[in-house]
Design goal:
The structure holds 2 protein chains of 2 kinds. By secondary structure, chain A is mainly alpha-helical. In chain A, strands 1-2 form a two-stranded antiparallel sheet. Chain B is of the alpha/beta class. In chain B, helix 5 packs parallel to helix 6. Chain B has a single domain, classed as P-loop containing nucleotide triphosphate hydrolases (Rossmann fold). In chain B, the strands form 2 sheets. In chain B, strands 6-7-8-3-9-10 form a 6-stranded mixed β-sheet, sandwiched between helices. In chain B, strands 2-1-4-5 form a 4-stranded antiparallel β-sheet, covered by helices on one side. The mean pLDDT of chain B is about 90. Chain B is globular, with a radius of gyration of 19 Å. The chains are: A mainly alpha, B alpha/beta. At the A-B interface, helix 8 and helix 9 of A face helix 2 and helix 3 of B.
Amino acid sequence: MLGLLWAVMTIGVYITYRILGIADLSVEGSITTGAAIAAHCIYTGMNPYLATFLALLGGMAAGLITGLLHTKLKIPALLSGILTMIALYSINLRILGKSNLSLLRMDTVYTVFKESSLVNNPLFVRLNIAHQLPAIILGIICVLAIVTILYWFFGTEIGCSIRATGDNPQMARAQGINTNNMIILGLIISNGLVALSGALIAQQQSFADIQMGIGSIVIGLASVIIGEVLFGRRSFYSRLMSLVFGAITYRLIIALVLKMGMPANDLKLFTAITVAAALALPTFRSYLRPLTKSMKGGAVDAVNKRNS
Amino acid sequence: MLSIRGIHKTFNPGTVNEKTALNNLTLELKQGDFVTVIGGNGSGKSTLLNCIAGVHTVDAGSITIDGDEVTRIPEHKRAAMLGRVFQDPMVGTAANMGIEENLALAYRRGKRRTLKWGISNQERQLYKELLSQLDLGLENRLSDKVGLLSGGQRQALTLLMATLKKPKLLLLDEHTAALDPKTAVKVLELTDKFITEGNLTTLMVTHNMRDAIKYGNRLIMMYEGRILLDIAEEAKQKLTVEDLLKRFGQASGEEFANDRALLS
């Protein structure tokens, strides 16, 4: 049920990839930054909720850096993301102090739920899902809160300006929108969410690891695409919800292929191929269309001939 | 209203692709002037509009709109004073946003954008009325994505957006060039109507000499980054295409070269 926690990251990736039209690689670093900040703070005895909030702020700062590199220094978006990602690797190591920090037996955001009587209900214990319930409950709360806030935000004047900037920057500037600021704002929100997701994941799995961000942009993209393909993209609200279901579906697919016996080491290769195939789908379709048309046409001709 | 003094613009200076687009150009527009701009290929018409809008910053000279010097002000800030329609119908609107959302963005041009809701119900009513003036049936498709509209519809919508908040200066950059002749006529008539009703100060670049003569109260012809001819009021009313070509030849010592202008 990690899917719900990854859904938070997927929403972050969606903001840059679909709304702003930028593939933001700083995500790879900021998810670990979120995990590292939360882990370090909890390890040193801070309140886990405060620690998670600080992780959110840390991710926002990372987004700000990428945004400044891209808009003020005019470095291409992809490269700006890569620069932030690389820089964050060192920073994350500094925050963690070592490559892996364990949170076993520490109080996390899930502790309250773990101790609640609802979760320890004999029914759940017997069904053997009691240990997963805290993450599910908190995951649902977080996801619903984020979807609601973003649905409101992207309907406001500022939110509309961000959407216009991603859609058509020339038009946005002609309507008096400071496109640079909107890109920075979008990156801040996106990376904040990604770091929040990292913080939640680290606490759920009881450790933060310097490697945990690797491939996360691809996982995010895979979830975005799965969500769009399987769960539609009608209204903005249904799009946001489709991201959540996309992230969960992705996790289910991974669990499934692992169960079917795929070595865990091949996971990233599997994800990369899936995303490449999904991104190539429109191209394949345009190749296939004339082919299927001529085949259909041929069949119709043959039928007509036979009938005449 | 608009005062341009001695502006220069050179693209790619110091390279083999160096191109002087504007060369010491000076132009004054009075409040309510409707000026048509015509010129050959690469004469600097579009560059002039882009320099006024702040897409390019000029190398030298100054630009003042309604008493405010804007020479160094960025594009998005100048937008508060300007309404713009572009040659490419795709440029003026956001394709993945609804018709009403596009209008709402334009309605807030020059205002501080806040966390207030992006569109109010009152506005919707206003947009409905304004859209029905276009006579394109768009008033019943408020929430449709703009990407679903035809080029002509998008251009008419962009025009409405450009004039929704009365601009101090309206900049039209060959905004009918990409449309089929019938739609172009319709959009031009709408343009003229909006300009007359709003008494808008306007610069309209066109490649069509007949349109340049028919519309507006003043015509300027550009050549190699400067203004070659400036014909206003009564002199303009008597002007014919042949006249214009002859006077261009006398002034520049060359034949008029604009593929599209000669073909249309």
